[in-house]
Amino acid sequence: MAPHDIRRPFKRAAISDQQKRRELSLQRQAQNRTEAQLQARRLASSILSLPNHNSEPQPLESLDLLPEPIVEEPETDAEDISDIDIRQAAKLKGPEARRWFASQLMLPEWMIDVPDRLNCDWYVFARPSGKRCFVVSSNGATVSRLRNGCLLHRFPSALPNGARTKESSRSAQSYCILDCIFHELDQTYYVIDMVCWAGISFYECTAEFRFFWMNSKLVESGACEAPSAHHRYRFSLIPVYNCDHEGLQTAYTGAVPYVKDGLLFYNKHAHYQTGNTPLTLVWKDETCSQYVIDTDNKGQVPNQQQVVLELQDNGQLVTSDDPAVVLGCLNAVFIQETGLHPGNLVRFAVNEGGLTFVDGKLEKADLQCLGKVHRARAFADSYSKIVFQYMVRHSPLRIEHLFASMSMITEKENNTNEMEMVG
Amino acid sequence: MFRSKLLVLLLSVEGNCSLKTAIANKVMALEVTQILLNAQSVDGSVRKHAEESLKQFQEQNLSGFLLSLSGELASDEKPVDSRKLAGLILKNALDAKEQHRKFELIQRWLSLDVGVKTQIKTCLLQTLASPIQEARSTASQVIAKVAGIELPQKQWPELIGSLLSNIHQVPVHVKQATLETLGYLCEEVSPDAVEQDQVNKILTAVVQGMNSSEASNDVRLAATRSLYNALGFAQANFTNDMERDYIMRVVCEATLSPEVKIRQAAFECLVSISSSYYEKLAPYMQDIFNITAKAVREDEEPVALQAIEFWSSICDEEIDVLEEYGGDFTTAVSDVPCFYFIKQALPALVPMLLETLLKQEEDQDQDEGAWNLAMAGGTCLGLVARTVGNDIVPLVMPFIEENITKPDWRQREGATYAFGSILEGPSPNQLTPLVNVALNFMLTALTKDPNNHVKDTTAWTLGRIFEFLHGSTMETPIITPANCQQIITVLLQSMKDAPNVAEKACGALYFLAQGFEDVGPSSPLTPYFQEIVQSLLTVTHREDAGESRLRTAAYETLNEVVRCSTDETVPMVLQLVPVIMMELHQTLEEQKLSSDEREKQNELQGLLCGCLQVIIQKLGASDPTRYAFMQYADQIMNQFLRVFACRSATVHEEAMLAIGALAYATGPDFAKYMPDFYKYLEMGLQNFEEYQVCAVTVGVVGDICRALEEKVLPWCDGIMTQLLKDLSSNQLHRSVKPPIFSCFGDISLAIGENFEKYLMYAMPMLQSAAELSSHTSGADDEMIEYTNLLRNGILEAYSGIFQGFKNSPKTQLLIPYAPHILQFLDLIYMEKDMDEVVMKTAIGVLGDLADTLGSNAGSLIQQSLSSKDFLNECLSSDDHLIKESAEWAKLAISRAISV
């Protein structure tokens, strides 16, 4: 039994650089593995959590130890549709497709007053004139569908999994959903938002983040390049500006390769929220849009403003907002005489009496019934649209107001600063 | 698997017991002496022939072979040399370093004929009485090996009794041999294999043998050395005040023996007691202090070193306890209280240690193996500083002030070393003002002091200053715009000094760079970056860079400078790529090397691959720099492949690590390298001996899976085969197995439903590993930690597999495995000793299972014992990663059971 060695490290770093490299590698690998898992889960949960208004997610309490009797849920079309994911949805037809796609797009409200902090929290860009649509690439094909669900094009594209090419042997999970406007003149899809890219969901991401990714990923994919055999339509990005004085000016008057149809404002912090949202806004005047005042189906501007409202069971006429705004009521006799049913969309003209506001809220509307609308239409008008159209005809919100609001904000902030310093 | 192997072993041994054996045994016994002597012959061919004969004998007739060896060892008529070798071969027939081999030998011994074993053991015990010391000593060790196998099996119960039966009557040499045997026995056998009454007998005999009344120094020394090993058995005896007092008194008395070896052995016992029985020491500390102080000041160096070690060991204990307190003294989280022995001894202890600092040896900094009083004392001083913190500063500062400017280099060096030693422990508030005063002095000393030793310690001290007092968390910066340039100039200048000084200067620069790691977009080092890199590269080319680890230190520092660099210097890091590649290229061009040169070449290649790995990881971390780096990817990969072709374990590992980083940076394009790289990947996975290499390669497989995704498919058959082989191997270090399971998950996530064909192999492996991990009740901390690692690996595999199969028409293939997985989760939840990582992974698996299997999983989850509780517990966790996984699981489950 020899004496025991008691030497300790002397003037030496306790850990070797190689050991450090090993550990850093392991850290990186563990991190990458976690990210890969999260990505797989995010994808799945984005499909799970596609807005599902009719069936609430099962509350946790039902996770009982005893097996529950399986209850057949009452089948309704609405529930069926809300359960399917985008790839299945691409195969839907008719009213189902319409309803599904209609519920997937983020719909801007019309700007009826200027939001606070417009110059800090918002982006602005010139909206291309054209058809708003969803572009979905999956399983080697790309499909575009209009807001009402109608098929616009089916085509090969350079989007991930958007064409059958040798390189694109991607997994079925890898699909894209883009929010676009198809511009007829140059046959180009202008991408205004990105919802999913290569299987990664961006629903829960801020606009700031989505735009950043949209810019880098879209160019990377080759989708912005000129059309070719595997890429029938060009995709294009739109210059997005911070909505300060200069940005607004550029978006409003700056040259773009497309015909403008108003300005779109996106709140930087807002997630992609399906349906109507006040966190994206649309605004138009004659300088930046040919279609400020709504036209009828012959393309003429009618003498009187027209609105489309949905008839409820109780005879109320409501907008498409959630919660809906009630603009009027039809009596039962009238409904019976005209053969209208609850759920119908009905067109009205705004009469001389116009819309009456009290404290910024609509109190009264003088409406005249014109009849049912074309069945391709999926929605009633939104409240903001009705008010914007009314304002355009009476006292429009002009670009000067938008600019003025910014200088007001600056002044306000200055004032606050001063007050703080005094206090 | 084990069981079938065991069966084969048993069968092969049973065939041996026969008459034939006895005859062969007799024939061989006649010749064995000569063969054993021949086996030690200076003539190589004679030796080789003898070794072969022994091997043959062993293979043909194991029992006979072992019997004749034990007979040889026991016979006083035989030459010492043949007896010693006989004993050694016997010992090696009972034990081996490699775990799997050890296991085989144990099984082989246990399956031998009982009569044969009894005969061998009788011979061994008989040898203890031999007049020949070497024969006795060899027999002691063999007896301990046999005991190590048999006592845990409750065999050979009479051993200890028969050793001790007449210990008081036997001649001195037998007593000495008996005590030595007890010492070895305690080293071999685990304390729980020996009954307390036997332990009492052993300790009684050993402590009596140590007693000052024992006349023979040989007996006393053997007893003292045996006690060192027996201390682990004395748990019960140390809780008995009288017995503990007695043992301590005898040990302390032995430290005063006139025989230096006994004093040294007695101090070794004290060192061991200080860590094993720290909480029992309070009554003895005053005496121990006096004994150790006397030894440090007056005794011979080997004894004095042990005396210092006692205090270092107490520091270790108190640092551990205080760390467990974690600064929170209100709740006693530790089992062991802190007795603050060091704090109490401080006024006397510190002066004693400071005295040792002046007893340096010339050239100790150039001698790798040096360990002397000054080094031990300085090291202990550093530990004391860590233990007591601020209190040490006023006790050390006068010593520093008095000595730092003295003409004798020993005083300047001792003072500097003292300063460097106390930089870890006291608060930065306390130290920073002192350092601000000292810094200029140090920088001057590093350039101007005539003594190499002083410069070495000064550079080391600067390194400690930067390590502990410089960084983004410090309130007052040590390094300011005013002194930064001077510091760097001095350090770069010192890199041209003698190798040992240059190496410490590199170390100081390492910590200087590290302190600027989180400095933000702009680093104070940026203006000097080019110069620093250039200087470090120059150091690596020094003729004498092989001395004092200098070249290694220069590359390590370069790596740290790169790691901590900011975006400002990306272009310069990028320029470094072709420079390092050129260096690597040159090592590959050298040919016809001697084995010594080859070793140096391999070492250098390791350093260069390590450096490239750091650069790749740095540049790969953001998109723009990654694109810029990609121009070199082909060339770099090509060089790594050539490095592999040189074949050396450490280079292999470094190149492998670098390739992992490269795969991550390259992404799917890495596919083009796979045809050439694959064979090396396979080689790495087959490297059982150097398990680090295997572990690193397993990690790289994960990198490649994530980089290539489904493009990895063509290589998966080979990879999976290797991984499954690795898992079945009992040679492979167990630490590699959890990452292999995780790697299954990586593969499945990459190739999705194509994993189908591996399910029938992977799933049973996972299942049995899961079962194995549940049989660890009553395990120690190390086992619990391993169990957690193993479970995490298994769970990551399940996660990857479920996610890989998600949305595939083949998900139903996984349904049969779900009940077991849910049981496994139940078990993990109910055992309650999972760590946060396992908790997060486990709840994630629950979600993945629900998500992939959907309604098929719904009722299973509802029936499972604890899913609901587990989920609720995770949902309310403070750990956001656990919570995130739990939210996901909740969503997936609610969907699975609502369908």
From TrEMBL, chain A:
Gene Ontology CC annotations of this record: cytoplasm; nucleus
Domain Snurportin-1 m3G cap-binding as annotated: residue spans: 104-280
InterPro entries: Snurportin-1 (IPR017336), Snurportin1_C (IPR047857)
Known role: Functions as an U snRNP-specific nuclear import adapter. Involved in the trimethylguanosine (m3G)-cap-dependent nuclear import of U snRNPs. Binds specifically to the terminal m3G-cap U snRNAs.
Keywords linked to the UniProt accession: Cytoplasm, Nucleus, RNA-binding, Transport
Molecular functions per Gene Ontology: RNA binding
Parts forming coiled coils: none
Protein's organism: Cynara cardunculus var. scolymus
Cross-referenced CDD domains: Snurportin-1_C
Family indicated by similarity: Belongs to the snurportin family.
SUPFAM superfamilies with a match to the protein in the record: DNA ligase/mRNA capping enzyme, catalytic domain
Protein's UniProt keywords contain Transport: yes
Gene Ontology biological-process annotations: snRNA import into nucleus
Official protein name in the record: Snurportin-1
Compartment(s) of residence: Cytoplasm; Nucleus
Major location (coarse): cytoplasm
Residues covered by region (Disordered): 1-37
Comp. bias intervals (Polar residues): 26-37
Record lineage: Eukaryota, Viridiplantae, Streptophyta, Embryophyta, Tracheophyta
